[in-house]
Amino acid sequence: MASEDRGVDLLWGSRDKPARPARLALTVDRIAAAAIEVADAEGMAAVSMQQVAARLDVTKMALYRHVASKAELVAVMIESAVGEPPDLRSTPGGWRPRLVRWCDLMRETWQRHPWLPAATTGERMTGPREVGWTESAVAALADTGLDGGERMDAVFLLSGHIRNTQSAVTAGTQPWTAEKQLRTVLHDHHHRFPALHEAAQSTNGGPRDNGWQFGLDRILDGLTVLIEERRSGSPR
Amino acid sequence: MASEDRGVDLLWGSRDKPARPARLALTVDRIAAAAIEVADAEGMAAVSMQQVAARLDVTKMALYRHVASKAELVAVMIESAVGEPPDLRSTPGGWRPRLVRWCDLMRETWQRHPWLPAATTGERMTGPREVGWTESAVAALADTGLDGGERMDAVFLLSGHIRNTQSAVTAGTQPWTAEKQLRTVLHDHHHRFPALHEAAQSTNGGPRDNGWQFGLDRILDGLTVLIEERRSGSPR
DNA sequence: TACTTGAGTGTCCGGTGGACACTGGGTGTA
DNA sequence: TACACCCAGTGTCCACCGGACACTCAAGTA
């Protein structure tokens, strides 16, 4: 059938265009780019081998010449989407502003690719760039007096918070992010959830950011407490 | 075929058992229980309509008489698995021990049902018990001087941390939880990730808990800073 | 010119969630 | 008592998913 189409094409028009331009056209990078387009436009759920293949005008099985499995495709997508990890050494002011900067950059790229939270959960392969981001943040904590495990835990805590707030933006991870639903539920059952009802009432307005800024400040304050304790008090 | 089996059954044995015990046997609760069994044993990915139906010796379509969709089934599973929210008013010592207690209970049930992190991500319906857990934690922050939004954000921060550490246990959300992989990568490319390499080296042993305790302490310390600031200093 | 290589194809498989028409026993009503 | 309706559970179908595998056929090499 495809060959028939080709025949018609050859007979009726565009004879001048190269007879086989499609050969060697497929590469891992092009596949990843197409998959990212799909994910950006329609979400991670829409990323299937056939969808991606269709966008490249190719059969899904052709993709398997270049990626071993869908998991590998997703891994390549992530590695491509996260971009080069930042160098924070030029950011002045010590560990705290550096981590803030790191979070800003992280959230920026995650906002550009809202499917990243969903794609980066679960057991999976990790690419060098992704590890590079972690490296970058751990390095920012180098001279804080925290031991290695603590530095890693701190970065994990921070990136987890980014993931939570970021995925909640698009997918409503937490009950109260499904705004309308919760609001009506709270209205109908306010006697059952008095504390929530009261909290919803006494919220000091302001645009919701899923608790991003609040959580960031709490985490950094908590880290500050530990770091100062280590520095001045008992150096363990 | 099923009727044949029934016939054989009737002819050869167990004639005494009621002729049609299966009628009215299916209920939402039984379906949810079966689905939870599947999820506990084989993970969320194994929860399909047919799997659940098979466990109940029933056709998958029979389930649709009782739940409208798979999403609804999952919602019922969650609501059933989280259990009754706790009453923390009897826990002495103020908001901090109460939140610690809340986290302990939360982690306990999440450990009993390791699929809960995976099931509670994404847009979905929320049941009264799940909201009840939130209510419970928000109530624990009632007399802290935080406004409603802050109380909600604090609970979100905490439950997000539980989710992250808990799901990492089973699914390796973060790069460095894939222990062996990262360790070999770090060994092979230590020149590329010096900070990570050094951190991995200088970790003060101890059993990893995915940064649960570390993160919890940081978050609670950070909350303490804010609450004390509100109480003593400028009440905003 | 003959042979090998390898990118892309077509077809198949088992699994998924779900639509829809059907069966057949239980029960309320005439 | 007879009948009709109700409705829990069934069987079959569909589109879609990821993936195995054998195939075609153009291009490069010997």
Report on this structure.
The structure is a homodimer of 236-residue chains. Chain A is built from 12 helices and no strands. The first copy, chain A, is mostly helical. The longest helix of chain A has 24 residues, at 148-171. The termini of chain A are far apart. Chains A and B meet through α8, α9, α10, α11 and α12 of A and α8, α9, α10, α11 and α12 of B. Chain A binds a DNA duplex (30 and 30 nucleotides) through residues 1-3, 20, 22-26, 48-50, 58-62, 64-66, 69-70.
Write the layout of secondary structure elements.
2 copies of one chain form a homodimer.
Chain A: H1 2-12, H2 28-42, H3 49-55, H4 60-63, H5 70-82, H6 95-112, H7 116-119, H8 128-140, H9 148-171, H10 179-188, H11 194-201, H12 212-232
Helix pairs in contact in A: 2-3, 2-5, 6-8, 6-9, 9-12
The structure holds a DNA duplex (30 and 30 nucleotides).
List the helices and strands of chain A in order.
Answer: HHHHHHHHHHHH
Largest sheet of chain A: none
Helical run tally of chain A: 12
Which pair of chains forms the biggest interface, and how many residues does each contribute?
Answer: A-B, 75 and 74 residues
Instruction: Categorize the overall geometry of chain A.
Output: flat
Radius of gyration of chain A (Å) = 24 Å
- Secondary structure tally: strands of chain A: 0
Oligomer: homodimer
List low-confidence stretches of chain A: 1-23, 171-177
Distance linking N and C termini of chain A: 74 Å
Helices and strands of chain A: which structural class?
Answer: mainly alpha
Quote the beta fraction of chain A: under 5%
Summarize model confidence as the mean pLDDT of chain A.
84
